[in-house]
Amino acid sequence: MSAANDSGLADRLRTAVLSLELMPGERLSERGLESLLGASRTPIRAALMRLENEGLTQREGRGWQVTPIDLTEIRAVMEYREAVEAAIVEHAVERADDTELAALTALAHAHHDHDDEEVGLRDGSDFHLGLARLSRNPFLVDAMAGALTRLSRTRWLEVRTPEARAQARAEHLQIAAAVAGRDVTEARRLVAAHSRGTRDRLLASLEAERRRLRGRGVSIIESSTATPPLKAV
Predict the structure, then answer these.
(1) Of 120-134, 179-193, 202-216, which range is least confident?
(2) Distance of CA 10 to CAs 13, 26, 74, Å?
(3) Backbone phi, then psi, for 63, in 5-degree steps?
């Protein structure tokens, strides 16, 4: 199988994990995935290893498992995302031209009159990655893309209601307006408020529905928050 086919296989497996077709905590076997993906075990193992690097699969004994949703990880990723996006808006204010800023506003306003969960999730990703690209820093773009990937499964839960999607769009428009107005202080305040509000709503939803989601096969855990001690070199 070619490298392109290997990549396509990983993409299909990633989609199955992110869309919750494969549930958090679900056990996986290379043999069992052969029929689902229509591929042999060697490229399936390569795809599983690629998703392991993204935090979406993990080894479980001699087999594999879809990584459970970890509330501790969500808090950490959201904290990381907030720091990254604060740097992004600062650079975007300095470096983006007026045409790009107008395009960002249009992106924030897209599909406001024709919306569903999938559109809301995609538009949210497009906005945050579009904003990241205005920083002119590819490492910040990669950092934001990685954070969004790690949050993708739980972001499905965040965009379930029209009210939640409308609130996200309104906040995106406020962020775009602050960046277009070259107001670094306000842009940083707004991305922090947006990130923290999303985090709080998401964690509250997961905590409230933990038992029901567990009944559907969704594994939600709370890992240790202890930081390993530093060792003398």
Answers:
(1) 202-216
(2) 5, 17, 23
(3) -120, -150
